[in-house]
Design brief:
By secondary structure, the protein is an alpha+beta fold. The chain is 27% helix and 21% strand. The strands form four sheets. An eight-stranded mixed beta sheet has the order 2-3-13-10-15-8-7-4.
């Protein structure tokens, strides 16, 4: 699901919340842009990552027509009868892909009140990782209904991978590195995506918690599209939960555990949650993550005699496989 208990990382709390920055990332997507324009976007990203770990991005290259169709088809999927959705139940997949019913995930002993369809990067049957039988490498479970769902989700995967690569270049620049420095870590980014539905709780069942309980994301970057229902909240330095709503024509981006480790705590992954709200809520988070075999450890540029490495190296894929057991 892309989450980590924040106590596992003990990340510094975000400063007192202010309006999250809105960053024009067009220069990072445009090969004809000037270095000065790209560095401007990168500085804004770096400032946001140091201060709060969340920011909005505009001019991201995704057409409005795609976003509208994405939510339309997602809602149509969740409106299907349970028996239809359970045809792609995640328990039928050897690769942790498919439908998760209401209450199928738990945070700190309480059921998260949402249902989801989980997808991951797919590789050709002759890809070396597939031939080697690496964990989590295999086909997605694609629902037969509603029509166009698979196509729009595949399109969204492509859009988000392109945006993720652009943001990676911006993150590298923000650290004073060459734009392509992080490319070897993400050139076969092992991503996952979810479409999520948060219905109203049907009762006061004490075993049910929030839509999603407090957590930080375990990956590199999360790129979120959400409807107008609200419910997403981020914790600030005083421990208060502050709403983070949608901004027109923008995606919400937050950094995760991998970014915090790479930057040796210079950039902070911030705790967040989703409250239940008095209406159905839909969202589509895309988790842009490193290659399956990438070694994750503090980058040399973020380490010094006064700030030695704070994390032990680990393989991203091994971490994923352990969490999905």
């Amino acid at each position: 699901r892309g989450t980590v208990d924040p106590s596992e990382m003990a990340p510094p709390l975000a400063p007192r919340m202010k309006m999250l920055p809105v960053i024009d990332v067009a220069p990072l997507l445009d090969p004809q842009s000037s270095l000065a324009e790209r560095e401007r976007a990168a500085r804004e990203i770096g400032d946001a990552c140091r201060e709060i770990g969340f920011f909005y991005v505009t001019n991201h290259g995704v057409p409005d027509s795609h976003r509208e169709l994405l939510f339309d088809r997602a809602k149509a999927f969740f409106d299907l009868p349970n028996e239809e959705k359970m045809k792609v139940f995640i328990g039928k997949s050897e690769h942790f892909r498919g439908y998760i019913p209401l209450g199928g995930e738990v945070t700190k002993g309480l059921k998260d009140w949402h249902e989801s369809l989980d997808l991951r990067s797919e590789f050709a049957e002759n890809h070396p990782a597939v031939l080697a039988g690496k964990p989590l490498h295999g086909p997605n479970q694609w629902p037969e209904e509603p029509p166009e769902l698979r196509g729009v989700l595949e399109d969204h995967f492509t859009y988000m991978q392109n945006l993720g690569q652009a943001l990676t270049r911006g993150l590298a620049l923000s650290l004073g590195l060459e734009e392509a420095f992080l490319k070897p870590f993400v050139d076969e980014a092992f991503c996952n995506m979810r479409i999520l539905h948060y219905p109203l709780p049907e009762s006061d069942d004490p075993s049910v918690g929030l839509g999603i309980g407090p957590h930080i994301d375990y990956g590199f970057l999360t790129i979120l599209d959400q409807d107008q229902a609200g419910g997403l909240e981020v914790v600030d330095a005083s421990g208060d939960w502050v709403p983070v709503g949608p901004v027109p024509d923008a995606y919400l981006v937050n950094i995760g555990r991998v970014t915090q480790i790479w930057t040796n705590d210079l950039y902070k992954a911030t705790e967040h949650r989703v409250r239940t709200v008095p209406r159905d809520r839909y969202s589509v988070p895309f988790f842009f993550n490193p290659n399956f075999d990438s070694l994750i450890e503090p980058l040399e540029v973020c380490v010094s005699a006064d700030n030695p490495p704070r994390y032990e190296p680990y393989r991203h894929g091994e971490f994923l496989a352990e969490r999905c057991q």
